[in-house]
Specification:
- The chain has about 500 residues and is of the alpha/beta class.
- It is about 30% helix and about 20% strand.
- The strands form 3 sheets. Strands 7-6-5-4-3-2-1-8 form an 8-stranded parallel beta sheet. Strands 9-10-11-16-13-14 form a 6-stranded antiparallel beta sheet.
- The protein binds 2-acetamido-2-deoxy-beta-D-glucopyranose (5 copies).
- One 2-acetamido-2-deoxy-beta-D-glucopyranose binds next to helix 8.
Length: about 500
Amino acid sequence: MAKAGCYSLHLGILLCTLLARLSYALNNGVGRLPYLGYNTWNAYHCDIDEELMLDIAKRMKSLGLYDAGYNWVNLDDCYAEKSRNAEGNIVEDQTRFKGGMKNLTSQIKEQGFHVGIYGDSGWYTCAGYPGSFRNEKRDARTFHDWGFELLKFDTCAVPYDSVIQQNNYGKFKPMSDAIIELAEETGTTPMIYSLCSWGWQQVWLWAHEQGQAWRTTQDIEPNWKSISYIINNNSFITQAADFYGHNDLDILEVGNGELDFEESKSHFTAWAFMKSPLLVSTDLTNITDASLSILTNQEIIAINQDDVVGTSISPFKWGYNQDWTWDPEHPAEYWSGRSQNGTVVMLLNTEDKPKAMTFQFHESPWLRVGRKYSIRDLWAHTDNGTASRAFTAEGVPRHGVVALLLKDAGPEDEGIAPPCNDPRLTTTWWWGCTQPGVNDGPDGATPPEHNKGDDTTHDHKTPVGTPAANTESPFCHSLSAYRYHFALSMLYYICC
Ligand SMILES: *[C@@H]1O[C@H](CO)[C@@H](O)[C@H](O)[C@H]1NC(C)=O
Ligand SMILES: *[C@@H]1O[C@H](CO)[C@@H](O)[C@H](O)[C@H]1NC(C)=O
Ligand SMILES: *[C@@H]1O[C@H](CO)[C@@H](O)[C@H](O)[C@H]1NC(C)=O
Ligand SMILES: *[C@@H]1O[C@H](CO)[C@@H](O)[C@H](O)[C@H]1NC(C)=O
Ligand SMILES: *[C@@H]1O[C@H](CO)[C@@H](O)[C@H](O)[C@H]1NC(C)=O
């Protein structure tokens, strides 16, 4: 390579590094995929101690949860003494964590887990333990010294905005800065920063600048009403989720309270497909096989942990309601999204009775009419043949779910009526055979010989559901818009 070329290559790499940092400060290598593990809150609230934590780690292994991918063990609120020590540091509860946090995290990490802890952006945590307001650097250091690799940061006892004048963005920012500074100072991996921000001030619009996950809603409860409320709110903000930044739908309630088997499956599927972190939080000493079978469904977990596609499923049709209806009791019922292996579809029966659920392929952006798709049922673990144009799931239980993976399997079979290129339809209808109602339309229309199935004006052959090569870097993505500008085009071709 000529000298000038080398020079511009070096300059390019330098600029890439700087720009990538500016445009996406927190793509710092942690939290690329949603984290899977255990959190103590829903199962135990404040009733936690070191023996429990060790027992949880042991059972995560023996129950197969660790092997299924759940490799985090996270403490929630109530691990500390009520007051800081003389130096001003948070100290662990001297009775319940008498061996010391450092010792506890070492023992859990020795078994292969990562460990996470909890803190609060205000004066006190939600249960009244010391919060980190104006102690962010000090507390980040304590958590780091204890060995923790993730911090869930809550929103209780925050001073009024009229006093501190920094809004929610400003309340969470100092801890984000503290985590990054500490990692730089110590040359260690930054802690994952999980903002427990309850959806306040549209956290999904800005939290990716500070951390890797953000709570989009109020606390979850172990009943269908709560699950359905959370799904409804999240159905409108699915675009916020991608690699390194996740809408957090809250800790799982599988195994708890009033949720029945079908409701628990729906809960788990929605959380996984919306790319939420998945934290088990139920009593593992008596967890049922049914709950375990839900939590360890490898085909569902694989979508959550897709290494190629980081985006969430989104509704393409509301079903029970008109599209775009905000209804906590009847959220959107027909969802789809991309995955590395094809198009993911989630059907959610929000009604109190079983029903058949049908979708037309033209309704989803990731499916095409004129193609044939193989259908994989991710709960039955069966291949359910192929389908073209539409699919119906019969007898979806009340509050139940159907999770499908559709893979392109070539052009649709001959002879499906009405033909997509029926001349009467194409001259009359913009959408031809996909016009609503036309699928049940005129029979016996035989298209003229020259008009049969060789329409080349549409690119039928590009598979959909296949990610673009560069789904990951927002930096490259924004740069690509300017790639015809000379200087930036150099950068684009060097970096991307
Ligand atoms: C933790 O404490 C126990 C009991 O005091 C001790 O036996 C063990 O060696 C310690 N483990 C680590 C990793 O420090
Ligand atoms: C859903 O959003 C509405 C409107 O912002 C809010 O009032 C409600 O508390 C949210 N629900 C949950 C479960 O967070
Ligand atoms: C497990 O035991 C706890 C504590 O006794 C109890 O509250 C819970 O209902 C039990 N769960 C199951 C699934 O039996
Ligand atoms: C895609 O298929 C491969 C091979 O069967 C499998 O290992 C992987 O987990 C699948 N990925 C997703 C996201 O389903
Ligand atoms: C797929 O086939 C299995 C096995 O016959 C069946 O149990 C399941 O309900 C089918 N799934 C759908 C969505 O029709």
